[in-house]
TrEMBL record:
Residues 1-20 form the signal peptide. Pfam families: EipB_like (PF08904). The keyword Signal applies. This is Cell envelope integrity EipB family protein. Keywords: Signal.
Amino acid sequence: MFRSGLVALLFASVSPNAWAGAPAVSAAIATGLVAHRAVYDLELKDASDRSGIAAMYGRMVYEFDGSYCQGFTTSFRFVTQIDTGDSVRVSDQQTKTFENLKDGKFTFDTKSFTDEQLDKEVNGAAQDQPDGVKVDLKQPASRELQLAESRFPTEHMLDVIQHAKDGKRFFEARVFDGSDDGDKSLATTTIVGKQETPLVEEADAGNAGAFSKTAFWPVTIAYFNESAKSDALPVYRMSFKLYENGITRDLTMDYGDFVLTGKLAKLELLDRKAEVCK
């Protein structure tokens, strides 16, 4: 799943120990994640005058592969054309991550371009430790950081699926995904709706291929700054329909000043060799 890596709700305050009881990663659930490449068509749903955006559209490609034994890789590309009324620019974000669930390791590399010119690169590695997460940041500046205990993106996705299967509708967690400048984790609140089956009129349900008639959970994740006060608004909020195998569709990405929708345009399942963990 991406955030990178997403309702109108009275968000509860995030207590310091809210994520202390996060469920352990389930190898069985992790093994059930499907290697796939998903393409989403993006459109502007809403924008405030403050955003300065007159129109916006684009495409997002998300590729997820790997295994519990060898680790999971994610490649993510997010390209948008932004019309401000006075000018048009193309934004291109490219992210690659690797997550080893067994060893608690996570590496990340993000390049951001505007009109094909590199604006920023963020890369480094993070490691779970008994007292939190150690981050070895290489770009934009080389330094070592010690952060509070956090979940990595695939870990958090597995937590969402586990809570959904258990019928738990709300939980909190701290997540580190290497986004922004790669130097902080974010507090999150996740709301999981009751499992549903796709409706005929859902625009992108048919593009889910073999899963087009499979049940899903509606999920909303809100991300808050690490130091946010209990009544603060989220910096980012994402809603999507989640299948048990990790595939998502019907995205809504709320950045505060503007909101994008992402409809699943194409889904390709990737071959993955069976393996036995040693």
